[in-house]
TrEMBL record:
Protein name: Probable membrane transporter protein
Principal location listed in the UniProt entry: membrane
Membrane topology, as annotated: Multi-pass membrane protein
Swiss-Prot/TrEMBL keywords: Cell membrane, Membrane, Transmembrane, Transmembrane helix
Compartments, as annotated in UniProt: Cell membrane; Membrane
Keyword Transcription regulation: no
Pfam family, any one: TauE
Length: 265
């Protein structure tokens, strides 16, 4: 057994899986994201997971986590079901495009571009406060726009491994005028078919640590509902500030990867 594999087994590893799951579930429910931005770096840093194995394990753990999150948001009517399915369909197609474009596009340039996108979103979150009473109106125009957003999200996911919630939640709030709760619930629903599709492929390629995925996913399920409940009682302005802080962490992570990629280049 290799040293890296040995680190992934034993009491310390199991405790780490559970701790990572608890944190990821809380953030998933609170912000409507999958939690991969927490799971992947912690698996790599704490347990020396290979980046690809960490991403595959994270995607598998997201399936039960997002499912519990959707149920939690659905109980308050905060899920736009049809828009979520439209986004998911676009994301599945976009992910295939992204993986094919991957060898042809500079990862460093992509990462800096995404950092720029996050900066714009962060600034916008201080300027636009979503209304909890806002209703998502599905028309032909918004339907086409949702397809475009889904495809774009999928392409970015395929190119740089960014989860959909980081893109979909702010876009639904800022561009579509959706309430923050509906944006989060819809984002979580959109992730499920995308994560299932990706996990099937990762299992075939042996890019999933099933035991780790199960432990993280089960642990995350215990805190996802708590996160979703906190989202309902947090004032929208404070919710924007917390989400902005979360995006800052992601932007810093992506900028560091871009810097390292440029040095290697």
């Amino acid at each position: 057994m290799t040293e890296a594999r040995a680190l992934r087994r034993g009491p310390r590893a199991y405790a780490a899986f559970i701790g990572i799951g608890l944190l990821a579930g809380l953030l998933s429910g609170l912000f409507g994201v999958g939690g991969g931005t927490v799971i992947v770096p912690l698996l790599v840093l704490l347990l020396q997971f290979d980046q690809r194995l960490a991403a595959g394990t994270s995607l598998a753990a997201i399936v039960p986590t997002a499912s519990v999150g959707v149920i939690s948001y659905a109980t308050t009517g905060s899920v736009a079901w049809i828009p979520a399915l439209i986004l998911a369909a676009g994301a599945v197609v976009g992910a295939q495009i992204g993986t094919r474009l991957l060898p042809r596009i500079s990862q460093t340039a992509l990462r800096w571009g995404f950092v720029g996108f996050l900066v714009v979103v962060i600034v916008s979150l201080f300027l636009v406060i979503p209304s909890r009473d806002a209703v998502f109106e599905l028309t032909w125009l918004t339907g086409i726009a949702l397809v475009a957003v889904g495809v774009g999200t999928g392409i970015l996911a395929g190119l740089i491994g960014v989860g959909g919630g980081v893109i979909v939640v702010p876009v639904l709030m800022l561009a579509f005028g959706t309430s923050d709760l509906v944006a989060k619930g819809t984002s979580l629903l959109m992730m499920i078919p995308t994560a299932v599709s990706g996990t099937v492929g990762n299992l075939r390629n042996r890019n999933v640590d099933l035991l780790a995925a199960v432990l993280i996913g089960v642990a995350a399920c215990t805190t996802t509902a708590l996160g979703a409940w906190l989202a309902t009682i947090v004032d929208p302005t404070l919710g924007n500030l917390l989400f902005a802080a979360y995006l800052v962490v992601i932007a810093v992570q992506m900028a560091l990867k871009a810097v390292r990629g440029r040095r290697r280049g």
